[in-house]
Amino acid sequence: PNAKAQNVSINISCYGKSVDITPGRMQPGFYNTDHSLYLSRQDTWRKTNIDAHTSLVRNSFRTNEIKLTKIWKYNHNLEFPSLLIEVMAIEALNGHHWSIEDNFLQILRFFRDHIHTRTFFDPGNT
Q1: What is the spatial order of strands in the sheet that 17-21 belongs to?
Q2: What is the value of pTM for the model shown?
Q3: For the residues of the chain, what is the DSSP string, one character each?
Q4: CA distance readout (Å), 45 to 23, 25, 27, 34
Q5: Edge-to-edge strand order for the sheet containing 44-49?
Q6: Burial class (CB in 10 A: 0-12, 13-18, 19+), 18
Q7: 63-75 and 50-60 helices cross at what angle (nearest 10)?
Q8: Torsion region of 31: left, alpha or beta (phi above 0 gives left; psi -120 to 50 gives alpha)
Q9: What are the phi and psi torsion angles at 97 (to 5°)?
Q10: CA distance 67 to 62
Q11: Sequence-distant (≥ 6) Cβ neighbours of residue 50 within 8 angstroms
Q12: % of the chain with per-residue pLDDT over 70
């Protein structure tokens, strides 16, 4: 397979499929689900909690809109973390229950209006 280092993950292309693998180091502690991720561009480690992250996304019931926004990001060759898409999309659609098309436009408007003016946090490391 072809492997490409990215900021936090490693992209592997094999048999026409592309997959990002994110290695993490589990933090010590009983019942602890915190992990450290290495950020190559900053040459540093960052704490995160995969359980908190996946729970936020799963329980948002916005996974289709998040997937659509990630496809949009990929098609426009944009560089910013997937975590940012997830957190911003969830916040952009808070209280909105429209069609997926209208929700996607709401996300794009939210990005336009808030990406430079708001602070967004990793749910596993606020």
Answers
A1: 2-5, 10-14, 17-21
A2: 0.78
A3: -EEEE-SS-EEEEETTEEEEE---EEPSSTT--EEEEEETTTTEEEEEEHHHHHHHHHHHT-HHHHHHHHHHHHHTT--S-HHHHHHHHHHHTTT----HHHHHHHHHHHHHHHTTT----BTTB-
A4: 12, 10, 12, 13
A5: 25-26, 34-39, 44-49
A6: exposed
A7: 110
A8: left
A9: -135, 65
A10: 9
A11: 24, 33, 35, 124
A12: 98
Residue pLDDT, tens place only, 22-71: 999 998 888 888 999 999 999 999 999 988 889 999 999 999 999 999 99
Cα–Cα distance, 92 to 90 (Å, whole number)? 6
Q: Which residue type does 17 have?
A: K
What pLDDT, in 10s, does the model give residues 7-18?
Answer: 999 999 988 888
C-alpha Rg value of the chain to the nearest Å: 16
Q: Which amino acid type is present at position 103?
A: N
